[in-house]
Amino acid sequence: MEWHDDAIVLGLRKYGENNGILHAFTKEHGRHAALVRGIQSKRSPKPWIRTGNILKIVWRGRLNDQLGSYKFTEPAEDCSPLPTIHYNSANIIHTLIEYLLLLPEHYPHKNLFEEAKDILKSLTNSDISHSSCKLVKFEVLLLEELGFGIDMYKCTISGETNDLAFVSPRTGRAVTRKFGIPYEQKLLKIPKFLKRNWMHVDIDSHEEICNGFYLSGFFLKKHVWQPRKIPISFARTEVINYHENASRRQSTI
After folding, report:
1. CATH number of 2-75
2. Which end of the chain has fewer CB atoms at under 10 Å, N or C?
């Protein structure tokens, strides 16, 4: 048995003297672990096997449900060295990898793969706010893929699709500004960059980015973290802290 695919590296652990088990998230075959032989040899593709890198791989095995082994043909065309100079670049990568490791093995999530790849590619520049917006969108898509989608596109009271401003934490459904203002303190705010057909993203609006993280984070905690007894991600918290501090600095100018 053999298949070819693009894959995001999730992690590598040593296996025996000279081998390793690589965990990867593939486009067509989902989360998949396989043996990598000779990781200590001179011909090893170890420099490519870095968490968050995007590779072209070949899987081989006798049967589909066996461990099998990976062979690397080359890094994917869009795979660039990820930055190490910005602390929050690493935090975004770690947060993303934690989410991908939650997904069931061998079950494809093509939309999540494309969004994850887009986030990793965006980290090749220094625009952390832009990458943070993409991470929030990934979290919303992750909830949808897991069956806990948030309805942010129609008011649950009036059925209107314009001027949606809040989401009910109880139902996960949107309400317009008109109906939501009296209960604003109890509702979650919808940031502009999550609204349908919203093309422009003000990447300097750190408050908007925080609102996005609060919104997706509430439902992630309710439907994913608490049921699985998963602690809140330290890396994700650090990303939010960065934008909260930046928002406070903006408000004092």
Report:
1. 2.40.50.140
2. C
Which CATH number does 87-252 carry? 1.20.1440
- 162-172 burial by CB neighbour count: b if 16+ within 10 A, else e? eebbbbbeeeb
The bridge status of strand 188-189 relative to strand 164-167 is: antiparallel
The answer to whether 21 touches 15, Cβ cutoff 8 Å, is: yes
Token digits of residue 11: 């992690």
pLDDT digits (tens, 9 = 90+) for 60-87: 888 777 788 888 766 665 544 454 557 8
Which pTM does this prediction carry? 0.90
Residue-wise pLDDT for 99-124, tens only, equals: 999 999 999 999 999 999 999 988 87
Token pair listed for 185: 């303190």
Q: Identify which of 202, 200, 201, 214 has the alpha carbon closest to the alpha carbon of residue 244.
A: 214
